[in-house]
Amino acid sequence: MLWRRNLFAPLAALALALTASAGAGTAAAATDTTVVAAASPAASAADDFGSPGPYATAVEVGAITTLYYPRDIADSDRRHPVIVWGNGTGGVPLVYRDLMLHWASQGFVVAAANTPMSNLGISMRASIDMLTGRNADRGSIFFDRVDLEHIGASGHSQGGAAAIVVGSDPRIDTILPIQPGPLANINAVRVPALLLAGQRDSIVFPALVKAFYNAADHIPALYGEVRGADHFTVVGDPGPFAAPTTAWFRAQLMGDRTAGAQFFGPGCGICTDTATWSDVRRNSLALNVPAATP
């Protein structure tokens, strides 16, 4: 399809550029994975969702999935929720590295499918299977540290459509499609959804994302249109996408009440933030969700 052809070249070029500049960190080779230590973030206030979280992060590159996670997860005193990720057409996790590491610094295990053609969600589901095995393996750093009861799905463009597709999986607790492509059916989703569009997106027009939102009248659904954003604003430095995506997953997967107040209740934070959002909509089911219990 035309939107796929238009998207492939820019993402592929960006992936090559980022690969060339991604030499920082210490790599340790394993049988089929590479583990890379990422920089330690400074601690941030609980409600400063756009700032790095308190966890130093690490990256493990596998054959099917790239994992971004709290570096000291083996010694963590808690289990960490999961976010599965799908790339845009022609993209790889590396081009979304900053967003993945940001979520990991906030305490999530991010399982990003390596495939550049993620629409069917097969690799995203396989990532959950893989983490289930690693969580049960006493020899793994992830042993009993992965919260498999709280899993979210996200992705960009074609990967955003994949997040909707995967949203029908009973293991998924929420979805956050970013500028999702059209090849998905949100009627099969049974969990809360935050659908994000870019005001100046000329590849996935805001109207296409609104169509998903309008069809999602059977679940609590929100539509957010990021002011001034084009289709590639989330690539590389995620900019205005970092804070709201983090807040959504903290609310849905960690029970963070401050984060929930950004989306639910009469004081809905994103509803009055006109500097970040050009359009925000909440359906009737979302309007009935109290801020304290997203």
Task: Note the main attributes of this structure.
globular, 294 residues, Rossmann fold, 22% strand, single chain, eleven-stranded mixed beta sheet, 9 helices, 11 strands
Give an overview of the whole structure.
The protein has 294 residues and is of the alpha/beta class. The protein has one domain: Rossmann fold. It is 30% helix and 22% strand. The protein is built from 9 helices and 11 strands. It has an 11-stranded mixed β-sheet with strand order 1-2-3-4-6-5-7-8-9-10-11, with helices on both faces. Strand 3 and strand 4 form a beta hairpin. The radius of gyration is 18 Å and the shape is globular.
Which SSEs are present, and which pair or pack?
Blueprint: H1 2-20, E1 27-29, E2 34-37, E3 57-61, E4 65-70, E5 80-86, H2 97-105, E6 109-113, H3 122-136, E7 146-156, H4 158-166, E8 174-178, E9 193-198, H5 206-215, E10 221-226, H6 242-254, H7 257-260, H8 269-272, E11 277-282, H9 284-287
Parallel strand pairs: 5-6, 5-7, 7-8, 8-9, 9-10
Antiparallel strand pairs: 1-2, 2-3, 3-4, 4-6, 10-11
